[in-house]
Amino acid sequence: MPPREGTYGLLAEFETPSDLVRAAQKARLDGWRRLDCYTPYPVEEAAEAIGFHKNKVPLVTLIGGLMGLVAMFSLETWISTLAYPLNIAGRPLYSWPAFIIPAYEWTILWAGLSAAFGMLALNGLPSPYHPLFNAPNFRAGALDDKFFLCLEALDPKFELIETRAYLETLAPVSVVEVEY
Amino acid sequence: MATSELKPGSPDYERWIDPATGEFRVLEPGQTFKTVTAKISDIVLTPHTPLGWFALFGVGGAVATLLLTAVTWLFLKGTGIWAVTQPVAWGFAIINFVWWIGIGHAGTLISAILLLFKQGWRNSINRFAEAMTIFAVVCAGMFPLIHVGRPWLGYWLLPYPNSMTVWPQFRSPLLWDVFAVSTYATISVVFWYIGMVPDFGTMRDRAKTPVAQYFYGLISLGWRGSVRHWIRYETASLLLAGLATPLVLSVHTVISFDFAVATLPGWHTTIFPPYFVAGAIYSGFAMVLTLAIPLRKFYHLEALVTERHIDNMGKVMLATGLIVAYGYGMEVFMAWYSASHWEYFMMWNRMFGPMGWSYGVLIFCNIAFPLTTLWVRKLRTNIGFMFLISIIVNTGMWFERFVIVVTSLYRDYLPSSWGTYRATKWDYMTYIGTLGLFTALFMLFVRFLPMIPMNEIKMMLPGAKIKPKEVASGEGH
Questions:
Q1: How far, in Å, CA of A21 to CA of A49, rounded?
Q2: Per-residue model confidence (pLDDT) at position B4
Q3: Of A123, B36, B144, B211, which sits with the fewest C-beta atoms within 10 Å of its C-beta?
Q4: Distance (Å, rounded) from C-alpha A53 to C-alpha B180?
Q5: ipTM > 0.85?
Q6: CA dihedral in degrees (B268, B270, B276, B279; nearest 10)?
Q7: Which residues of chain A lie closer than 8 angstroms to B232, CB-CB?
Q8: Angle B92-108/B272-298 helices, nearest 10 degrees?
Q9: How many beta-carbon pairs under 8 angstroms link A with B?
Q10: What is the pLDDT of residue B183?
Q11: What is the pTM for the complete model shown?
């Protein structure tokens, strides 16, 4: 992405999660779509308030798990029947009950790795730089004890002066401009 | 504050009762987001390392050199320096492997199963229980690797195309172990790391020195606490917990297959999988107590790891201990009920033979002492007593694996091949060395990583409750 200049958005700080959720609900009702909340721990009500529902992590996990299962079971079958057939105490070459165990482990392995790395990828992480880190009060509180609502400049409704006035009506502790 | 000493009417009593549930609080009242962050991250970010830390790390490191020495000698001379020979071809290596893996299982139980059951009290202890899991798996995984004789060829266990055109044999429980344990190690590390990412963000923002800022900034992956991220993060955590739960049960099941699939009396039994899993959790909780009790004292974490935690862990130990006791009872019963001469002789010999003393130690440490005393609430909340019992149960569970391995093997079908087992000094050095390695790794963990998950503790604080009235009004102040 080319470096951007100008304003990323306006950041309003709140003392309690309830204040944040109330403000986020109001902003969403008033037609804001490019907005996000920042909290020190998961606040599900805030995600609800900004209308975040699309969560693809379970799908990614399912696909990863199925791929692990199919990959390992086919590998075992191919090795034991075609690549390297061995007579082990007269058991059939295709001893599927024994094959289930490694296949089961690989289902969990690839589902787990997909859940973890899929979550990071969907979140766009790692991203060591983010404009929000430029806000003077963000790093002091975002992952400690403060709650933030950010209205982003990409929203068509965004207008620096008016949006700041609008945010002030939501009774925040402070409103600061975030630059790229 | 000892909850056991609180009586109705005493000034502290009201403070400790949660008005919503009528139960004792899990955390000491009066904590805020700020105090939690400060308390936990300052342990790591302080420039002043306590002297006691150096002492413990030094002791751990010194003991770990025993392992280094023993393994070096082993690589030079081969497994002949151990006491493994016929008829006891599996000695300390497998005993220690199963013991360490079992200890690890409580960490997964706490982080995964108790998360699924919404047991909020686990939040205080899950991080270091997971760390314990990983370090225990490190110690465990070493034993089969060094036991293969030529560990530099350990990768032959994996299915990969090679110039020998040889492939692994998928009908062997020992190969199942490779997949079970490697999956377990990987998923445990991933679960642990993902759980720490938001806390690394907090550390990055609080760190004062450039080195710490850079280090935590790097490993926090740029976490900024967006609620969209948090929702995906929560989903991924729940899914990982849901995956780790069947995983932890399968790992010790597969390990019990190493024994149960053999036709040896004392091993060939269907009760092994559940009884191995219960035993693993039993010893794992004991190890969590062994670690948590000194830690909360040393770092003054009594407000976050309260007596309620110790009490609850005592209850889990009681429950899993009873399953283990049932397993022992059933083994004896089946030896008699099977009407098999071999089974009957094995059990008689296990109890009263030349190594009968080890069975006695096992029964005392795992059944007679803990399962009679853990019923008493006063004892469960007595910190000194719980520390003692955790050591006793860990000893007992080590002897359980000793009894299973040695007393089943040293008197086999043919009296002419009967022998005995006497561990050599290299066996002891390797085992004691892993205890040192475990201690050293754990001390590094408490110094450099947040040992209690800050974001999960914050979720449990009263300040985290969304007040529906304020939200619904929409008008605010």
A1: 6
A2: 46
A3: B211
A4: 35
A5: yes
A6: -110
A7: 55, 57, 119, 122-123
A8: 70
A9: 222
A10: 93
A11: 0.86
**Closest CA relative to residue B296, chosen from B441, B446, B435:** B446
Mean pLDDT of A39-44: 86
Query: Nearest to residue B438, comparing CAs of B101, B112, B47?
Result: B101
Residue type present at position B251: V
Q: Could you give the CA distance from residue B461 to residue B341 in angstroms, rounded to a whole number?
A: 61
Cβ-based neighbour number of residue B286 at 10 Å: 29
pLDDT tens digits, A46-77: 888 888 877 889 999 999 999 999 999 999 99
Closest CA to B84 of B400, B410, B346: B410
Residue B347 has, within 13 A of its CA and on its CB side, a CA count of: 18
Q: How far is the first Cα of chain A from the last one, in angstroms, to the nearest whole number?
A: 13
Q: For chain B, give the percent of residues with pLDDT over 70.
A: 92
Tell me the per-residue pLDDT of B111-163, one tens digit each, with 9 for 90 and over.
Answer: 888 888 877 777 778 888 888 899 999 999 889 888 887 888 888 888 999 89
Considering only CB atoms, A125 lies closest to which of B180, B222, B466, namely B222
Contacts 24+ apart (CB under 8 A), B294-301: B294/B387, B295/B128, B295/B446, B295/B451, B297/B383, B298/B50, B298/B52, B299/B43, B299/B446, B299/B451, B301/B39, B301/B452
pLDDT at B1: 41
Residue of A nearest to B178 (CA): A102
Closest CA to B279 of B407, B398, B143: B398
DSSP state of B71: H
Chain B neighbours among A 94-153 (CB < 8 Å)? 95, 98-99, 101-102, 104-106, 108-109, 111-113, 115-116, 118-120, 122-123, 125-130, 132-133, 138-140, 142-145
Give the largest CA-CA distance in chain B.
90
pLDDT at A173: 85
The answer to whether residues B457 and B306 touch, using CB atoms and an 8 Å cutoff, is no
Burial label for B40, CB within 10 Å (0-12, 13-18, 19+), is buried
- The answer to whether the Cα torsion of B90, B96, B99, B101 is positive or negative is negative
The span from the CA of B142 to the CA of B430, in Å, is 10
Average pLDDT over chain B, rounded to an integer: 85
Query: Helices marked H in chain A — which ranges?
Result: 17-29, 44-49, 57-78, 96-122, 138-141, 160-168
* Range scoring the smallest mean pLDDT among B29-43, B242-256, B335-349: B29-43
